[in-house]
Design brief:
The complex is a heterodimer of chains A (114) and B (112). Chain A is an all-beta fold and 114 residues long. Chain A has no helices and eleven strands. Chain A starts with a strand and ends with a strand. Chain B is mainly β and 112 residues long. Helices cover 0% and strands 54% of the residues of chain B. Chain B is built from no helices and eleven strands. In chain B, the strands form two sheets. In chain B, strands 2, 4, 5, 9, 10 and 11 form a six-stranded mixed β-sheet that branches. Chain B has a five-stranded antiparallel β-sheet with strand order 1-3-8-7-6, with no helix packed on it. The chains are: A mainly beta (114), B mainly beta (112).
Amino acid sequence: GAVVSQHPSRVICKSGTSVKIECRSLDFQATTMFWYRQFPKQSLMLMATSNEGSKATYEQGVEKDKFLINHASLTLSTLTVTSAHPEDSSFYICSAQTVNTEAFFGQGTRLTVV
Amino acid sequence: GENVEQHPSTLSVQEGDSAVIKCTYSDSASNYFPWYKQELGKRPQLIIDIRSNVGEKKDQRIAVTLNKTAKHFSLHITETQPEDSAVYFCAASMEYGNKLVFGAGTILRVKS
């Protein structure tokens, strides 16, 4: 299957700082990228849908000013967690898709805010 | 919007037995139903999927059935092995390229 690379895989940051997570489709051009958050022992919850060149669509309850999404090209989307707090600690996963393919997931980023 | 419910939340089976996980969805517009296996700290892996124009699909020890009228679909794993132990998620979507709505997950433990 296609490869989606997410970086970093783990990050620890201080409360109040910002963290950027990258999601790259390595061997295909993704029509759409999705960002999910997964708390321990819970399911994947969609945060936002991102299309290249347009503003992301955020799910209800997700603060767009806190979780900044940039989708600069068909192979790269970034999620920036701004002014991170301990409650933002979670596993963040991206997926990249086209209209003709299944979802391909990145390996996830474990964010710990201390 | 779409809501997906998944049962059971945990399932323990003896090696060699079958395991069944069930999901229901609410949006009749959903047409694509994938199942994922996720190991701790890893990305979800697609194990099988089904579209609404098909009632059943099988891939070796894994099968999925779909009842579109009743809005439910199920994952069947036969001859379970210890390496099948993981968390399994069902999901629903309108189609490829659309967002996935996940069930709550099922922790499957296969005892040897």
